Amino acid sequence: MSVAPPARSAGPDRRRHRVHAGSYVATGERALLRVGAFVRERFHASPVSRPKSSEHDRVTEADGLAEDMIRRELLTAHPASVVVGEERGTHGTGRVRWYVDPIDGTYNFARGIPLFCLSLGVVLDGTVLGGCVYDPIRDEMFTASEGVLRVNGATATRRGQGPPMLLTDLPPCRSWAAGPTDAVTAALDGCDIRRIGSSALALAWVAAGRADLAANANVYAWDVAGGQALVTAAGGGYTGLPDERLRTDRQGGFVAWGPGHGERAQRLADALRPTLATA
């Protein structure tokens, strides 16, 4: 699969910002493609997982090795930047920050379920500029740069027949012992629900029009920064919960939606926000 070149700027007043974003996203795309081949090989070699923060939060040796490889590529190409990874923490200095999840959906990965991906988001001074999500099993690269979503270098085609499809892992395994609130249940009414175990992949599929909404809790910045860029580039929306900050110090949540599903997404976000604010 070839790597698509950055799109040209639409005007001189934003040229410097746009070229900057496109260059970083292209670097991220190349890194995820190369490291994705390694992750794919490890998947077929039956990796072993172990608990990390809890029994339900799993990690494999491949997670850390993949993050090391991604970080080296990013900092070699852009030494004046910062890589914030799920497994290895923060490295580097600069205004641009990369939020990297080397394998989002690790438990699927370890159990032989082909629903996982590599994800990164490019953030400048707290603003998400672009991102990449790579599915190494299907060889699908989702990228967002300069407000344009591409899947394997081409424009995505939305598929919208039927009831609204929601991708969610709610309620999370290690909280909400009493189950979702009545408000959450009401907001979900009428949705066809899928639980896939990867927030980044869920966001990529919403961006590409394969699903209409995605919502999750227990996420950090590296889980969602890349996917947030994809959804907004596709003309959809993204709301962080309980607030819009990309957090690495505590877990949060999100609701994302494709075009035409903003009203339902807002109801779901309003229902989830009080629960996540106290989580």
How does this structure look, described?
The protein is of the alpha+beta class and 279 residues long. The chain has two domains: 12-151, Fructose-1,6-Bisphosphatase, subunit A, domain 1 (Fructose-1,6-Bisphosphatase, Chain A, domain 1), CATH 3.30.540.10; 165-277, D-Maltodextrin-Binding Protein, domain 2. 35% of the residues lie in helices and 29% in strands. The protein is built from seven helices and 14 strands. It has helices spanning 15-44, 61-77, 106-111, 182-188, 199-207, 221-233, 262-277, and strands spanning 49-54, 57-60, 81-85, 89-92, 96-104, 117-124, 127-135, 140-145, 148-151, 165-168, 192-194, 213-219, 237-241, 252-257. The protein has a seven-stranded mixed β-sheet, sandwiched between helices. The protein has a five-stranded mixed β-sheet with strand order 11-10-12-14-13, sandwiched between helices. A two-stranded antiparallel ribbon has the order 1-2. α1 (15-44) runs antiparallel to α2 (61-77), α4 runs antiparallel to α7 (262-277) and α5 runs parallel beside α6. The longest helix has 30 residues, at 15-44. The radius of gyration is 18 Å and the shape is globular. The N and C termini lie far apart (42 Å). Mean pLDDT is 88; it is low at 2-19.
